[in-house]
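notes to self, project folder thing:

trying the whole complex as one job this time. last attempt i did each chain seperately and stitching them together was a nightmare. two parts in total, labels are on each line so i dont mix them up again. if this works i'll redo the older ones the same way
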Amino acid sequence: MRIVVCIKQVPDSTAKVVVEQGKISWGDAPLIMNPWDEYALEAALQQKEALGGTVTAVTIGDESSIETLKRALAMGADDAILIKDPALATLDTQATAQVLAAVLQKIGAVDMAFFGRQAIDGDAGLVPAQAARLLGWPSLTLTSVIKIEGTNVRVERSIEEGRQVVTTKLPAVFSMTKDFGEPRYPSFMGIRKAARAEIPSWSLAEVGIPAPASVISWPEVMNPPSREVTCEFITGANPEEIAEKLAKKILAEKVL
Amino acid sequence: MNTWVYIDHCKGNVIPASWEAIGVGKALGNVTALVFGSGVEALAKIAFEYGADKVLLAEDVTLVDYRAEAYATTMSQLAAEQTPDLVLFPTTTRGRELAGMVAIDLKSGVMVDVITLDVTDGKITITRPIYAGKLLTKEICSTKPQIITLRGRAFPKPAQQFGRSGTLTKVSAAPGDFPTKVEGYTTSEGGVSLADAGVIVSGGRGVSNNPALTPPAGLDEKHAEIWRARQGFALVKELASVLGAAVGASRAAVDAGYVPYAHQVGQTGKVVSPDVYIALGISGAIQHQAGMRSSKVIVAINKDPEAPIFKLARFGVVGDLFQVVPALTAAFKQKMGK
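result (full assembly):
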């Protein structure tokens, strides 16, 4: 199996993210692998362990993203590619999908492409389905269970009403949810291997496509309106009295 | 403006944000609702009652179940012929996926999970949360059709005008052999879907700490903790049941194995905005806040007076949730006549 995992580097999920002078700032919070992508990498590694083959981690980013690719290597990916080009500084989702679809074609003979369900910065959750559409491959988004036999695929996908059980054929695009199972930690051997690894970077010319045009623009980013609430603490002689007062207060808000 | 609205449903059960989208489209001009499936003509009738002027009804054996490729191809072909100005979807698993694929087919972009929509001189500017609601961004799309998914409960649901009708047009499913087949469904965890819920009662790690309980003999430490947590979550569920609420949970509670992931609220779970959010034994880590801070009225019960959740809460109780919650359930039962 030729397996590719598309990952993104994002500010840590515990970061306090604010807009300062019109720019997004996360202070000195570290950059990490998008948490959803860790599930995608775990799914990819499990497929490799079950079926044989190789796992390649791919990201679009600048030099700093090498740290995230090294984490992927430390967790068990066989190799990694950084897609780096000045034309890729700000991309909307369809432009990102165009680049990643071209990268998957350039790598060639890919059987399975894994993505996290969404990146925790932009929160769009569109790239996996859009890359699948560009490639003409089945889109298996929000997957939690995967079974492969030959080129036959059976997955369970999360939907609002529960799970949908779907069969299809490889090659296919998978986006993974947390239900798949906890991602592994990097191994000691993996960390040593990753530290020594030379990670190739490809420009758009090397991928073989012109710079994709973004059609979405972001005229303004804003801090959300602050919740100006002062908590009214409810007290009483016993739990029943507290509960009685609290229930009255909530009902008085007339939202129930 | 000619607006299309995708009526998102599973086996005929419509996601309410589909009706909210009709309301948004009506404020901008004419609305055409898209109803795909098999045996779903009844949904067309309801779409008219919520304000749709036209319905495009595609009923076909290939559309019995939602399948991304079959649905997207049918929608893209219709849109290429009829060139709507704006296509609206509810922000759901299906809505997101379809919007993304249709945008690729029509060479346009998607503005996703939109909470405000403003039209000036025929140009749409939207606002949507990013970083799980830690920030908001405005967005503009330079291509047509404009494709937007609307966050549930961000826009009002129009009043249903019983008996209102419109123009129903039957259309064909796109021909094509799509390899993806739907084998069936596994049932959900039950309860109300978090995204649509008007009231949510959530439990955190604190629900496992009831010192008054003695786990059955023979359980190891981890299982004893989960046993305690199940007893604690029973209190959460009882309160939720009296209020007709959905059950939520913090990441800590999910990771500890107390409740399934489907219940997780927060940055790596669901982002919700109910009218009332009751947080029980949840300290309120920044990732949890990101998932629930836009709730109208937040109520917190926690034993730690310094818990950050109280900074968001309209009402707070510093105390033992194992005593207060059953009393609160009883109080609501009595007041709400149950």
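what i see at first glance: Chain B is about 30% helix and 30% strand.
need to look closer tmrw
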